[in-house]
Hints:
The complex is a heterodimer. By secondary structure, chain A is α+β, with helices and mostly antiparallel strands. Chain A is built from 27 helices and 24 strands. Chain A has four domains: 1-49 and 318-431, no CATH class; 56-292, no CATH class; 439-481 and 718-852, no CATH class; 497-704, no CATH class. In chain A, the strands form five sheets. In chain A, strands 4-5-10-7-9-8 form a six-stranded mixed beta barrel. In chain A, strand 4 and strand 5 (125-132) form a beta hairpin. Chain B contains seven helices and ten strands. Chain B has a six-stranded mixed beta sheet with strand order 6-7-8-3-9-10, with helices on both faces. In chain B, strands 2-1-4-5 form a four-stranded antiparallel beta sheet, with helices on one face. The A-B interface holds A 440-443, 758-759, 762-769, 772, 844-846, 849-850, 852 and B 45, 49, 52, 54-55, 75, 78, 81-82, 87, 89, 91, 93, 95-97, 106-107, 110-111, 154.
Amino acid sequence: xxxxxxxxxxxxxxxxxxxxxxxxxxxxxALGVGANTAIFTLVHAxxxxxxxxxxxxxxxxxxxxxxxxxxxxxxxxxxDTGDFTIFSYDLYQYLRSQTPEYAHMAAAQAGQWTWSVxxxxxxxxxxxxxxxxxNYFEALGLKPFAGRLFSDADDTPAAAPTVVLSxxxxxxxxxxxxxxxxxxxxxxxxxxxxxxVAPPGFFGDRETDSPPELWMPLNTEPYVRGPSSILHHxxxxxxxxxxxxxxxxxxxxxxAKISESLRQWIRTRPxxxxxxxxxxxxxxxxxLTPAGGGIQNLQQETGKxxxxxxxxxxxxxxxxxxNIANLLLARATARRADIALRTALGAGRxxxxxxILTESVLLACIGGFAGLGVAYAGxxxxxxxxxxxxxxxxxxxxxxxxxxxxxxxxxxxxxxxxGAAPAWLSFHAQPAEALRGINRTTRDRSSxxxxxxxxxxxxxxxxxxxxxxxxxxxxxxxxxxxFGVATxxxxxxxxxxxxxxxxxxxLPGLYRQIEDRFSALPGVASVSMALYSPLEGDNxxxxxxxQGHPAPGPNSHCGSTWDRVSAHFLDSIGVPMVRGRGFTxxxxxxxxxxxxxxxxxxxxxxxxxxxxxxxxxxxxxPYSSSxxxxxxxxxxxxxNPRDKVRPVYLRPITQQYAGYKxxxxxxGEVQSMxxxxxxxxxxxxxxxxxxxxxxxxxxxxxxxxxxxxxTFDAQVAGNFDQERLVARLTSLxxxxxxxLASVGLYGVMSYFVARxxxxxGIRMALGASRSSVIGMVLRGALWxxxxxxxxxxxxxxxxxxxxxxxxxxxxxxxxxxLAGAIGVLALCATVAGFIPAHRxxxxxxxxxxxxx
Amino acid sequence: xxxxKNVERSYKAGHTExxxxxxxxxxxxxxxxxxxMGPSGAGKSSLLNVLALLDDGWAGEYWFGATAxxxxxxxxxxxxxxxxxxMVFQSYxxxxxxxxxxxxxxxxxxxxxxxxxxxGMVADIxxxxxxxxxxxxxxxxxxxxxxxxxxxxxAVVHAPALLLADEPTGNLHxxxxxxxxxxxxxxxxxxxxxxxxxxSDENARYGSRIVELHDGWLTRDEKLEPKSTEVGAQ
Lengths: 852, 234
């Protein structure tokens, strides 16, 4: 212990003695450890963290993918794969009654909806809320912070409408009001009683950038959504199921049992078994997944990106380690005499090793401590990039205990890693030789490991740079692809007529007012409304049946996206008609039901036919003549910008189809009458749109809040937040790696020049010109870079292959990315080598020879 | 062959200026074997560095034949040095990572000569200095005398008109020193002009002329009768 303390004191003294070295090493380490810790903070918060619930290890979810938000028939991919993940209320109740192995089987809404919520006379605000089953909090083992949480009694049709607030919302929206429990709030203009506040830290059943601010019992869904309610639609799937499994239950057996129950339930549903559905029923099943970390949608969405970033930051750390190892090697060579003297005085190798490692580990720990600061700042930046505008984000930048432990472990490992090389060198030091002080030799034993480290750094840098170029190119392809819409000078305003208490019969009047008032605003070129606007992340889809065609089978891929829009919608987003006509004032509630379709729709459903005048319907054959195609518009991307343009049809805001008989279809039709988006197209860049829009909307109806307002550009860009984050971080890591590798090369070449000043002097005295000296030093640098490239290029190709799933329209073996990486590295290496080379050329032979 | 007129050299350290060469006027005829002597700090090595064109910071006139060296720029001076001057160092200054043959080839490699021609010149000099058997050895495998022999071979391989030697036997014992000095005499007899710096009176007697420096001033210039010892290089 005493010796260790002595070693620490000696190490501290050594570090104090060389402030330049110490500072360089600490900054390098802080960057390396900081980058890793920042990414690990995210990895821990998103991928590794358990829900803050009683016993996360017992929680199991029925389902394994991110199917969302309301699905009819066989949901998501269940038609193809049989994998059931999302459930109707009826199916939930059935499975719950059949599965006593679950101590509590809870249900939570799959989608994340925003509601208009008002308290007292204050204006309504957009609030994220989630419908959950009455046993939801009990299943998670949560205790209230204030008041009480739901029980099954709250989740019955007859129960009084109640809500539970999240702790964050209570602190934020309700200013920690102690009297909030028992008070009334209005959700979609319907009164609810707040019965309690959830415990602090509980952010819901999944990681998301918009966690629920309030929870409502499932049975209040009809109360809130009126005719749009889906609670009692047995084939409308909209719930995720999870809960604690009783101890001792064999999960595979339980999975098989629930799958069988699912199949039994399907067999009782004629709607599902008709049209070939019975044939795919036997393969319907569920997959039980551990839910200790919650429902893993965000994890599935970001997991690959995060894993890639973790690998990349580890590579940066390795490069940083190589740099410090190089610095320490140079010091070890300079301190050879010191170590030799200690050896000559009787210090054993173990003792010397311990001293060297103490110094490196101490340095690593100081660097790691500084790295926590870098990590904190980096994490803030990453969160702002990844979740712009997120409210109550459940991921913090402050290092938690596991993160601190990780940083310490990384620092410790780093210290041992970069301390190993100089320790190895000291093992092979010949004390007699070192003490003799053979200054006139031009040979240097430490240069080989140093050069090997630079080769290693160059190789890793190529990998990171090539990766960065691939990701940046992929992002550029994504962002600058042709979406088919014009976004310039356009704004998208989201509003919620249902939340303001509007019913379907009052909507036409409201829409007319909105068009008139907004059109009258100065500088507005056109105004339109839509059920949802392009590229906002929403999608409505139905199975299209052409007139005269038989009912499609379960695997027929009859799906088409659709949207309900006002007359000037296509004008307001700059999409031209290519055939027929657009919607006009003559398309009224009583006129024939008309639709506009895109070119992809024509190609899929009416190939080689004139689509104008053709009829089709949705879901069931009797409706197959419901709509008449009156126009074809040019393809544009309405939902996922990464996918090809899907078939799309548009229906007018004025026409509600009254012929449906199935409750779920009637509900869907009613719900589709409630517009969500107002698209404003200005002649020139407007000023202060926000207050203008709020003022105008409030002028129409003070109870109509602006739920969200952003430029169309920002809305489109929002689709690529994750890609942008990964591309920027990859670029940042690439640049960091390049800088570290360049500094490493510069250090080695400077050391080379310093150690060989005598030799350079001799060469110059014998006639070497300055250019030949520069050439000699640059050649020395160049071979290291070339060796690095020889290792790095195959590694970069392999890395590109691993990154393939993250790339958009960029080949994983992209020659430009590789050439770019090589070019940038070569340029930086030349600069890094040229500075010491120039210094070498400035050596005065007379001075160098005198020093010899 | 060489004429120095009023050559001066000083070093500035802070506000003080230290003079190491004062108004040196010196003419060296072709074929001379000149010895520069003087106590430590007298300016001997500084004078040699001026002659070798390793130093640029002097003032005055330096004529190398018809070439006004003082009027040349740095690059032109380097070219003069490369083509017409050879240099022998007290501590040999062989490069440890190069073999004997490669060390000798070094000055030729800076002259853009074809490799074949260079190899022939190196072979000739190895033969002339009787060190063919050692051509593949590294400096660390040679004795001090042998290393200096290689150093001299390297200095004369490109047949310089002027050979400069700074204490060429300073690190050698007396037998080896004598052999080296006889080699210098032989090279001088074959037409090479030599300027050596030495503290040794015995070495000075191998030359044909002695100049002496004190505190940077040239204080003595004396012609000598040639010594009659035979050349006995190894």
